[in-house]
Specification:
This protein is α+β, with helices and mostly antiparallel strands. It has 2 domains: 263 residues, Nucleotidyltransferase, domain 5, CATH 3.30.420.40; 180 residues, 2-Layer Sandwich (Nucleotidyltransferase, domain 5), CATH 3.30.420.40. It has 14 helices and 25 strands. The strands form 9 sheets. A 6-stranded mixed β-sheet has the order 20-21-19-18-24-25, sandwiched between helices. The protein has a 5-stranded mixed β-sheet with strand order 3-2-1-5-17, with helices on both faces. It starts with a strand and ends in a 7-residue tail after the last helix.
């Protein structure tokens, strides 16, 4: 029994064949994702679909070879296709279910532009609707495009990129989204799993473009036909002629499912382009300032999301590389040298606030990004490096500290995922020190794609039983 998991990230797209019986990845493939133009926050949805289809073909060929080498002639059951998707961003589809616009990703900053009464588009919606909205959220992007006349005439609805992939794989024209994706757009009633359409309309938002939210037991977007090229030598098929495709789930939830085996006692930290700290709870406790997201099954994820993740350390590495090249005319492996220099410098009095890319919350008060406490004794490269990783860890802990006590009680470990921490020994050390908990790494390196593949077990095999 195997499943296919697909993760559409901001910088890369990954697909895995997952052995649900052995609970492990059989094969993974990936390809880079990219923005339409340098400096833009737009991506090409049809290119993304094409990339996914190529990755799928590669995996099916691998499966054909794998089964052929073992003389397998019986049918191997491909139980279904799960999709994990970057959240918040939207694209518009026409009445035929085809893309009418680019994908406006979560990085879109139009919501921070001034709208009226001295308020940005995001803050205006927050005030009028009474729910939190930030730039990059689908509802904010939709409102901005609506008010500036940029929604094309042939647009019928908006969806996330994972939803669009599901539509293209199944041939569906219907704009339907999973509750995890709906919540990421903003303006969603978390406990009921529905959009607050009346409040949105009262704020001046055109609600005719909003997708339908799938019901709790409605998990399958449709079926995908499988081409006969997967026939095995001597008869039999590696996969059935068609397989169910699930509605896309948020990459935060998929990553948590893929990485964390002990949900009750673990804190999940993911460091990729951005970074997130997440905790699972069955209880809904809407304390002001908390980002609470619906879980794939019953319960919720309490999430602290930062715009400053691996790209902060990447920017620091680029700075050192630039200095070295301009001074010596030579290029160097800055990542390796940075770790070599700072690994012995466990702590420093130098204090960095490395929020180079700002905060999702405009109203959040705090120290401006910078370097503080500089003196002759700590004016060294290793102090700068360690101050950055310690600052990144402190930001994650400050987000975690806003969670209700009842959510954080009983946590005994941090499960880390994402290359931004997996490949950064310094950050791992500082996270352990700041949180006071041991850091372990998940044995599933492609966490989001694995989570999407594992979701198939709940949705298809177990008939919608709670995903644990």
């Amino acid at each position: 029994m195997i499943s296919l998991g697909i993760d559409i990230g901001t910088t890369s797209i990954c697909a895995v064949l997952y052995d649900l019986t052995e609970d492990k990845i059989m094969r993974s493939v990936s390809a880079p994702n990219s923005f339409v133009n340098t400096g833009s926050y737009l991506q090409d949805p049809d290119r993304i679909v094409s990339v996914v289809k190529e990755l799928y073909k590669e995996l099916m060929m691998e499966l054909k070879l794998w089964t052929g080498e073992r003389g397998t002639r019986k049918d191997m059951t491909l139980a279904g296709v799960g999709i994990s998707s970057q959240m918040h961003g939207i694209l518009y589809t026409d009445s035929m279910g085809k893309a009418a616009t680019p994908l406006y990703t979560w990085k879109n900053e139009d919501g921070n532009k001034e709208y009226r009464d001295g308020l940005t588009y995001a803050r205006y919606l927050t005030k009028k609707v009474g729910l939190p909205f930030y730039t990059g959220y689908g509802s904010v992007t939709h409102f901005y495009l609506q008010e500036t006349g940029q929604i094309p005439d042939n647009a019928a609805a908006f969806v996330g990129i994972g939803d669009y992939l599901a539509m293209q794989l199944t041939g569906s024209r219907k704009a339907v989204v999973h509750k995890t994706m709906a919540a990421s757009f903003g303006g969603c009633h978390l406990e009921d799993g529905r959009f607050e359409l009346e409040k949105l309309a009262a704020a001046g938002v055109d609600i005719s473009y909003y997708p339908v939210v799938a019901g709790a037991k409605d998990l399958t977007a449709g079926s995908m036909k499988v081409e006969s090229e997967t026939d095995l030598p001597g008869g039999g098929r590696a996969v059935p002629e068609s397989v169910p495709v699930l509605y896309a789930v948020g990459d935060n939830q998929a990553s948590f499912l893929g990485a964390v085996r002990d949900q009750e006692h673990s804190v999940s930290i993911n460091v990729g382009t951005g970074s997130q700290v997440s905790v699972y709870s069955r209880e809904f406790n809407p304390i002001a300032g908390n980002d609470i997201r619906p879980w794939i099954g019953d319960g919720y994820l309490y999430v602290g999301a930062s715009l400053n993740g691996g790209k902060v350390y990447e920017r620091l590495a680029a700075f050192f590389a630039e200095v070295c090249e301009k001074f010596t005319g030579q290029k160097t492996d800055t990542y390796k040298m940075m770790e070599h220099l700072a690994v012995k410098k466990k702590e420093t009095g130098l204090r960095a606030v490395p929020t180079l890319y700002g905060s999702r919350k405009e109203t959040e008060s705090g120290q401006e990004a910078g370097i503080y406490g500089l003196n002759p004794d700590n004016f060294h490269p290793e102090d700068f490096i360690r101050s950055f990783t310690a600052g990144m860890a402190r930001e994650l802990f400050s987000l975690y500290s806003t969670f209700p006590d009842m959510v954080c009680v009983g946590k005994t470990q941090i499960v880390a995922s994402g290359n931004g921490i997996r490949k950064n020994t310094l950050l791992r050390e500082d996270v352990e020190r700041v949180f006071g908990l041991p850091v372990i790494f998940t044995d599933r390196e492609e966490e989001a794609a694995s989570g999407a593949a594992l979701y198939v077990r709940r949705a298809v095999i177990e008939g919608g039983a709670e995903c644990r």
